[in-house]
User: Fold this.
Amino acid sequence: MILDINQLDFTKTYSYADYYTWEFDDRVELFKGKIFEIGPSPGTRHQEVSRELAGNLWNSLKGKPNQLYIAPFDVRLVRSGNSIKDEDVFTVVQPDLCIICDESKLDERGAIGVPDLIIEILLPGNCKKEMSHKYELYQEAGVLEYWMVNLLDKTIFIYVLKNGVFIGQQPLTEDSQIKSPLFPQLNFQVADIFN
Assistant:
């Protein structure tokens, strides 16, 4: 049993079976079996933007067969048809927000499978992780739509999966209207998120 993050070997590869037994307070994610620390709890601004996004998403999706989840929420990235045994899952992420349309991808521990839409809110300390590592993980896993929300620039970048590759949409600024390619009912002002 691992009770302290310092007991872990950061050079080792871990599975979800390992991850699930860890009993320390530090939040971590697994990227292909490698440990990435999430860091301290997000600040006030991050929480405000996350709340506004969640509220707009919830209102837009109400009555639809979609589920909205907010971090902390474990997502075990497994492509359909692949093994879903805990010892065979090596990527566990906690996106800021995600939408899952297929309820069979949900269990009491979180999600096992690929969310349809993932939203990550960029912070100065996590930009590299979100813009590089997670972008590649989400593309490879088959996430259909990925949003990166930049708090500093008040912009949103939307990527849509086409033939296994993310295609970037025009960046959205404060005076833009959010229109999700995957969920056309998501239609609200960017300014509403950042104000």
